[in-house]
Write a structure and sequence with these properties.
alpha+beta; globular
Length: 193
Amino acid sequence: MSLEMVVDAYPKEIVLKNDFQCSLRPLSTGDELAFHEFFLAIPNEERMFIKHRVTEAEVIRDWCQNIDLGRNFPLLAVQDGRIIGDATLHQQLGGWKRHIGRVSVLVQPKFRGRGLAKTMVSEILEIARSLGLEKVEAEFIGGQKAAIKMFAMLGFSTLAELPDYVKDMQAVTHDYVLMGLDLTTDEEYAGMG
């Protein structure tokens, strides 16, 4: 399936636990302020594990002004005009990892516990399949036990655990966990049955 067909499937309205509703859609150039506000609402202790300096407006501006959904596909959860979640599919368009995507997800704390992160990651996995990726990875800091458990529930397995391997934004070392999942592509689905 082409990227254009994937994008055309959005926005999607979803209903989660306790009739919680929001919509899913890709990042757009007009999201700069709301996307920055989303990251500012994440607690400091969690932002330390994000690889980019998301509190800096110019970082978010660059992301919103240079959107390349073929390389990074940020899928946003939006409610009443506010961004409450982000799941991103990262791809390398060439080289020896071109068949592998990387998945990340972040939900504002007050919207957790409703199944939003799991739903968003499941949606990203469908996008990865439809784009022909064969595998997906997810990276974690060892202390992210809830996220690791949720990804395991989606079928991811631990590929590597390296003690004291990465440093957060405060230069504190943490264990590194790499999880992976083999995907069944649309072509393989068609051959089944």
